[in-house]
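Why does residue order matter? Because the sequence determines the fold. Keep that principle in mind as you read this record.
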Amino acid sequence: MEQPDDPVRAALGDLRRLFVGPDERHRPGKPTRRWGRLRRVLIPVAVLALTGLTFVAIGYLIDLRDLPGPYAIGLAIGSTLPVALAPRRPLWAWRIAYPLLFLGTVDATPDEPWPWNPVQIVGFLFVLVVLASRVPTGVAAWAGLLTLVPVFATVPERGNAYGVVVLVVAVLVVGDQVRRRRMSQQALAEQAELSELAQARRAVLEERTRIAREMHDVVAHHMSMIAVQAETAPYRLDALPEPARAEFTAIAASARSALTDMRRLLGVLRSESGTPQTAPQPGLADLPELVDTAGRAGMTVTLEQGTPPAGAPEPPEAVGLAAYRIVQEALANAARHAPGAPVRVTLRPGEQDLGVRVDNLGGTPGPTEPPAGHGLIGMRERARLLGGTFTAGPTVDGFTVTAVLPYRTTEGEAR
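Structure:
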């Protein structure tokens, strides 16, 4: 059984591509403004030059070989047409020019060292060098080898035939070197782009590390101090009432929980892979504990969880996490802006979405601090990421936060 890298099979594949394979269109790099202006001048000049060479070939074939006018015109056009086609379709240019090497020797005179008109010779060499600069080496080698068939079959003197061989080989070598240089430049450009991406990634990682360091120095330190002071307060203060001891215990627990979340966030920021931690994220099952924690902190919070309809799916983890964070932020805002006011948390699971409502009853109509925080913005972003809706605003009874979190995105994929 032949292997995929069999040289015979590879050579036959190159030969097949030369005659019937696809001729990929050349895709040059992004042109510069200067090249664009120069191109507008070069194209008309090239068209005029090829037209003039076509008339030169017609005169040569009629005057020196006495060919009929239609035959001379067709052969002359066949000498210049591949030249115009080669920059875009080099394989098709060679396929048109190669049969004309046999047809172009009709009625050649003994005075001609090579049995083709000069325009055809120059044009075919141009096609050959463009072909060698665009296609793999194997395909170009087959083109050069087949070119030698009409050379040895039609050139009368062997010395001139060997000269053609040297010229064809030289043209193929030049074209192949051009192709290799272009491939090297493309590889260097790709490597430079990868280096720029790596440098940008390194800059992002350095910035993330700096942010993590600043957060650790500023936030984690103060949270640790809060936790330590709250834990040691019952031992440092004499005759501390039992409710105050429970209050300090709740403060210490909240500080430790915040430190745990902070360490998880710092780990994500410092991670080079940028992938999140695999530690379990809070969800709907953790809401009762969140409500109990708020109650131990002195808030009056009630949780109402509705019964899902029959056959309704379980809310995805992303929906549960978003609902937990929205309730957590809403409770924090209620404790900050309306301390002492009762809060009601309501969950309404449906067949396709989860409704979340947090009512701050009897509180102030809205935040009394300057709008410098990002609590409401973060809740709204969490809802929108899931394709849901979010509203927050004052009501007759106080302040209400509502969110509808669909189980599926607009594209139909479960989150």
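Residues 7-156 form one domain.
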